[in-house]
Amino acid sequence: MNNPIITIQQTDLLSDNWYLLNKVTFEYKKEDETIETHVREVYDRGNGAAILLYNSAQKTVILTRQFRLPTYLNGNKTGMMIEVCAGLLDKDHPEQCIIRETEEETGYRLSTVHKVFETYMSPGAVTEILYLFVGEYDASMKVNEGGGLASEQENIEVLEYTFDQAYAMIATGEIKDAKTIMLLQHAKINNLV
């Protein structure tokens, strides 16, 4: 953190119940050299990884569906979201994380994945960097039913769509998850499927 126009004055822990929520007071030096004091709440849940599983021969993708409480509280009538497989790094390297999460959530065991980019999903409030990957799958890689870990209270439905079906679900609003939209668009732009 070497930005000469920012000086962190104080950090107060507001919650560490699930992840960390801090109130940060900082000074911001403007171009005219005046200094403003800002106070922001910052949520630190760690970094994550997500992957679009695609089968170029069959022209299909694997997605998941699960309940997401924040969407339910903000107008999603069922709270169910269709998404790419994703998870928190939990101190793993991003590639290790997404290979582990892919098997836990979808039942597919991948040996290689390809990183396409990194993104901050909500940079005004959340510290998380999300590492986005693509990976090719086929039926021989299916080692279990997926669905997530019971110990993590995951209830994940594994879905397989044609790429065209999944891509069309962006326009219909059936897919509203940003990381999923970005990875489907990446696949379209790069003719992966």
Please tell me about this protein's structure.
- With 193 residues, the protein is an alpha+beta fold.
- 21% of the residues lie in helices and 39% in strands.
- It has four helices and ten strands, in the order βββββαββαβββαα.
- Strands 4, 5, 6, 7, 8, 9 and 10 form a seven-stranded mixed sheet that branches. A three-stranded antiparallel sheet has the order 1-2-3, with no helix packed on it.
- Strand 2 and strand 3 form a beta hairpin.
- Helix 3 crosses helix 4.
- The mean pLDDT is 95.
In whole angstroms, how far apart are the ends?
Answer: 40 Å
Task: Give a quick account of the main beta sheet: strands, pairing sense, barrel closure.
Answer: 7 strands, mixed
**What does the overall shape look like?**
elongated
Portion in strands:
35-45%
- Can you give the mean pLDDT? 95
Which series of helices and strands comes N to C? EEEEEHEEHEEEHH
Structural class: alpha+beta
Itemize the secondary structure elements and their pairings.
Blueprint: E1 6-15, E2 20-29, E3 35-44, E4 48-55, E5 60-67, H1 69-73, E6 80-83, E7 85-88, H2 94-106, E8 114-120, E9 129-136, E10 157-162, H3 163-172, H4 178-189
Parallel strand pairs: 4-9
Antiparallel strand pairs: 1-2, 2-3, 4-5, 4-7, 5-6, 5-10, 8-9
Helix pairs in contact: 3-4
